[in-house]
Specification:
- It contains 5 helices and no strands.
- 55% of the residues lie in helices and 0% in strands.
- It is mainly alpha-helical.
- About 21% of the residues have low confidence.
- The two termini are 18 Å apart.
- One of its GO terms (biological process) is proteasome regulatory particle assembly.
- GO terms for molecular function: protein-macromolecule adaptor activity.
Length: 163
């Protein structure tokens, strides 16, 4: 067995939700939307940091041209997860509609599932001083990402399906 937890594919997810009560479908959609919100906020922060590297004239030109490659890679990985999660919200909506219900969401991705699409995003603080120039150190940035993302796509030691 792999030491890395892999999320189930869309067809398995669709099968797994067929027997769930409708309120659980909405609860799962809210949970997924919350995760999307955090990933999008993280991507904004990662992009801002990478852009600050590009703008820092104290760094060598080659470094500035590339920005922060790790941040840019993390943004791309987050986009893959966000797209998978949006697909899951779509599957949840389709399941509710298959049962004859009406989806109580906003847009196609369900960003307003059982609530407002204008959810307040939590402020990110790291509780420690930043590196000179108002930048975060690599470890501070990693910790903020860990705090924001939690264990959504990581092996948290639990058995069973990862929805």
């Amino acid at each position: 067995m792999s030491s890395e937890a892999r999320p189930i594919d869309a067809s398995q997810f669709a099968l797994a939700i067929q027997d769930l009560p409708v309120e659980n479908l909405y609860s799962k959609a809210n949970e997924i939307q919350n995760s999307i919100t955090h990933l999008e906020a993280s991507n904004g922060q990662l992009q801002e940091y990478s852009d600050s590297i590009r703008a820092d004239t104290t760094l060598p030109e080659e470094t500035r041209q590339d920005g922060d490659k790790d941040c840019l890679e993390a943004i791309q990985e987050n986009l893959v997860v966000i797209n998978r999660q949006k697909d899951r919200i779509r599957l949840l909506r389709e399941e509710v509609e298959r049962r004859g219900g009406r989806w109580h969401g906003g847009d196609e991705e369900g960003s307003a599932v059982n609530g407002s699409a204008d959810q307040e995003r939590p402020a990110v603080t790291n509780g420690s001083s930043a590196a000179p120039g108002g930048r975060l150190t690599d470890e501070q940035l990693r910790q903020q990402l860990r705090d924001q993302l939690g264990d959504d796509d990581e092996d948290n030691g639990a058995d069973g399906m990862h929805l």
